[in-house]
Amino acid sequence: MFIDLNALAGPARYKLLTAAIVPRPIAWIVSRDGRGATNVAPFSFFNLMSGDPPLICVGIGMRDGAPKDTARNIAERGEFTVNLVSVRLAARMNVTAVDFPAGVDESVEAGLVLSPSERIGVPRVMQSPVAFECRVHELLRIDGRSLVVADVAAMHVQDDLVADREHLYLDGPKMDLLARLHNPGWYSRPQPAFQMPQMSLAQWEALKQSGEADRYLEQPLI
């Protein structure tokens, strides 16, 4: 099936793309406006784009033809926190997605505890297993939508999720992070993991020379 996205309306494009590109981690963003009012909202158009320098990217759409509060706040202050969502926080995250009227504090509605950050003036969600303090590196406007490229200035990890402090190993399965699937309202949690070490060129050439390359390509690794 060939699909020409340029021939489709926006909702149809969204439906197809979000159904195909899964799972997507959730950026639970805390931002503040120029007056200091706090906003908490989840976004699934989000991911890590570079480890060195540490960069994340978040796509923020519009509401009723205007930028969302999160986009306006980030443009005003140039900083925000990204808080990852564990499965046990799913209901609280869902409440922060409610379209509350202006002036309502989503963190209060969802029973969140906000804690001061160390490097920026925007708080983080204390219940979150991992939180990132971010500063805007570049802000792009594309058809009214905001594409935020941000430097990660610092991160917070709950102590019980650090498997090895010396080697900076985190306990991924224990984080039990929530991820977004297709619409409407489908999510996933981590499945049993499997390990597949990256092959060297010499190892791959050895497989080809031994005649085992085709067998390797066909074997189920999960």
Question: Any key phrases for this structure?
Answer:
three-stranded antiparallel β-sheet; 16 strands; single chain; seven-stranded antiparallel β-sheet; globular; alpha+beta; 23% helix; 222 residues; 7 helices
The rounded distance between the terminal residues' Cα atoms is 28 Å
Mean pLDDT: 94
Q: What is the ordering of alpha helices and beta strands? A: HEEEEEEEHEHHEEEEEEHEEHH
Radius of gyration: 20 Å
In one word, what is the shape?
globular
Largest sheet strand order: 3-2-8-11-12-5-4
The class by helix and strand makeup works out as alpha+beta
Please summarize the sheet with the most strands: 7 strands, antiparallel
The percent range for helix content is 10-25%
Number of strands: 16
Question: Strand portion, in percent?
Answer: 25-35%
- Unreliable stretches (pLDDT < 50, length at least 5) are none
Number of helices: 7
